[in-house]
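hey all, quick one before standup. I had two proteins in the batch that finished overnight and I want to keep them in one place so we stop losing track of which output belongs to which input. First protein below, input sequence then structure tokens straight from the run.
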Amino acid sequence: MTTSTRGADKVPAVLVLEDGRIFRGRAYGAVGETFGEAVFSTGMTGYQETLTDPSYHRQVVVMTAPHVGNTGVNDEDAESKRIWVSGYVVRDPARVPSNWRSRRTLDEELAAQGVVGISGVDTRALTRHLRERGAMRVGIFSGNALPDEGTMLAEVRQAPEMQGADLSAEVATKEAYVVPAQGEKKFTVAAVDLGIKGMTPYRMAERGIEVHVLPATATVDDVYAVDPDGVFFSNGPGDPATADHPVSVMRGVLERGTPLFGICFGNQILGRALGFGTFKLKYGHRGINQPVQDRTTGKVEVTAHNHGFAVDAPLDKVSDTPFGRAEVSHVCLNDNVVEGLQLLDKPAFSVQYHPEAAAGPHDAAYLFDRFVSLMEGQRA
């Protein structure tokens, strides 16, 4: 990625998909070039959380909402210490943000962090194209002297694909740290960081949990060195088929029977640990309006998603695994994709979506309480 920032809003920009489709617009954020996987997010709000979610590492995010940047950027809502998206695509950026917490414009924040974006694009047409053709590699090029279309397309096609990408160690913490419990400490949880969002340990801390966040390279011995009452595996980017180390660590946790909870990438890791396969979705689920049914209660939740891969597990039966019986606990009502797993003979479960929901609906916050119940049951 190469970038500069001066006068970006007057600079021409071009978005080039790997199948040759081209969209033209204006530079938004930094000026230069960037590459990644083109995906779309259907959230009407929460763009700051999306940008700073480590799960979006090496992805170029297309916002389906037409107006983006209306509330500016504040210093409270980031999910990590930096923007992780490779590029950003919007139709109509806000001319002037309006929010009492705003400290700067989204354009300024993107430029300051060197994130190349493009505005003035027909994002509806682009989203329809990705829905029909599937997520694919993309490049954004901006500047007053752009390469010819053939050269840009060749560069896009040389970029790495998301399938087969092992990315969690690139976004995870390098050193362990502790998020203290709020109020009385009730439990200790070891959280394996595969790209964790900041709101996740906060949601656990609200429930009296002291969270020890460990690097993606943590071993089983590292996990149990904190004497955990429960173990958590976080969300994160990349292809779960490459995540052999986290799968091995999770199997070690399952063998010991410690209460276990996984979110997003953690759900895919549990699927692999149980012997199920994973596969790449055509265009994935991203946004904060995805309907999911909790099959254990029949309740339908509106949920926040960000995943391009899914677990291949049977929806119509209980499966035998090396760790006892397992079943699909949650399913997406749009396409019947597996959205959750649970073991019936051990205290372990996972969901594919984001119950911490920042920003987004809070329908699924009860899942943290379910994790607490498992630890209470184990202690009893």
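OK second protein, same deal, sequence then tokens:
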Amino acid sequence: MSPLRSNSPLRTAVVGAGGIARTSHLPALRTLAAEGKAEVVAVVDVVEAAARTLADEESVPYASADLGAMLADVRPDLVVLCTPPAVHREQTVAALEAGAWVWCEKPPCPSLADYDAILAAEKGGGGRDPYASIVFQHRFGSGARHIGALLAEGAFGRPLVAHCQTTWYRDRAYYAVPWRGRWATEGGGPAMGHGIHQSDLLLDLMGPWTEVHGMAARLVHDVETEDVSTAQVRFASGAVATLVNSVLSPDEVSRIRIDCELATIELTHLYGYRDADWRITPAPGVAAETSAAWLDFGEEVPSSHLAQLRVLVDDIAQGRRHATSGEGGRRTLEFITALYRSAFTGTTVRPGDIGPGDPYYTALHGGAPDRDPASAQEEDRA
């Protein structure tokens, strides 16, 4: 692939013609195409008819069921993966080896071993070399960027206590899709496939974590994975947090709350937020002019695929590492892996504890895909 020019549209291939491509990725790509920053040049799907239908709808010139053939024929600059997580490693590595950048839907891949194989395929590892990044769009709304900057500069004082909640509802029909709720194809349950967005945002706001102790259970659904999990977390700052991930909750909400010395910060939404979804409550004694300044979020950017894609396209053009690539994406997967290992072993897990040779490095179930999450600790102690 020839070097990119910062003023050239990013020639983009979309892999996977399902719902997430149609509702999130393609609308974002259309907006950037209208601005001359991107151009969709190919659609790939395992069902060739689905690829051709979507390509016709979007006036895209190339459609195929063969990813390898598309990479050879089209030589795209960017490959957008809208496929199930079990194939993310194989597809990402193929795209990287063909000289393309990758933007991959969450979950990034089923294991740390898979993620590290992707890192190894990033030949140079610098911003000018193709790399893979993950869809963690909640980091890129103006609300998260504003609050994150205030936290980083200490405007709220020390963070003390936090809560991260992804309590959603999924019925039996949702799990009738064959790849859902299966370790081999989805990688994990709500901690991996649903709550990972809020967990990623919490880590981005709170900084490095130092230990996690988790619990998991399968209470309702006939699946292999858990359908609910909780965790206690300690951060390098000394702050502590609780997490709840559920697909059993009829009253659905996504929420983060951070109590600091000088203020409480709350974000309440469902699948995406605007600035109005953030609330800042000052502590007694905080000057009115200070708390008023906290409310100046600047130009509003809702959290969305478009918000992240704008930054990614600019990062690629300028030769910068994107925030959710490399270690910036791995830290969230390591945290989720640690939650599962802790839940299944009854032990506290710290960063760096899970590496080659550890069964949780290659699978979130730790090598025992048939066990009941609720009884996993007893089995490990036996």
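Flagging for whoever picks this up: The chain is about 35% helix and 25% strand. The first strand starts at residue 10 and ends at 15.
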